[in-house]
Design a protein that fits this description.
Blueprint (H helix, E strand, L loop, with lengths): L1 H29 L3 H4 L17 H12 L12 H4 L4 H12 L22
Helix pairs in contact: 1-5, 3-5
Length: 120
């Protein structure tokens, strides 16, 4: 009996987590996070990578930005993005970033070989 209860708890937590992950992924792109942090949350130029960061850290930072608190001038640009986020939005986005798995296919065929001198 105990095994069945534990199995059901585990299964429901996986289902809830995957739904939250999908919701967070949708919000990440809807809110425009990918514009600075990249489509794989890898960070672009001076904007930090967010993929697989600690959920507590990400939550702490987003809540501070929502409360219009930043540590430096570059972080101030996050305030307009975070100010409208609800607690549920923050939970979903941080779940997505914390559990990030790259499922995108490569755009280029790495087996492609160039023959000749390019026509010159």
């Amino acid at each position: 009996m105990r095994f069945i209860v534990l199995f059901l708890l585990f299964f429901t937590s996986l289902f809830a987590s995957s739904e939250l992950y999908k919701q967070g992924e949708a919000l990440y792109f809807q809110k425009g996070c990918n514009g600075c942090h990249g489509i794989k949350a890898e960070g672009i130029t001076s904007y930090p990578a967010l993929a697989n960061r600690a959920k507590g850290f990400l939550t702490y930072k987003l809540e501070r930005f929502r409360n219009q608190i930043s540590d430096n001038q570059q972080q101030e640009m996050m305030i307009p993005f975070a100010i409208a986020l609800s607690d549920n939005d923050i939970n979903a986005i941080t779940t997505f970033l914390n559990e990030f798995v790259d499922t995108q296919q490569e755009q280029y065929d790495s087996s492609y070989e160039v023959w000749g001198d390019g026509g010159s």
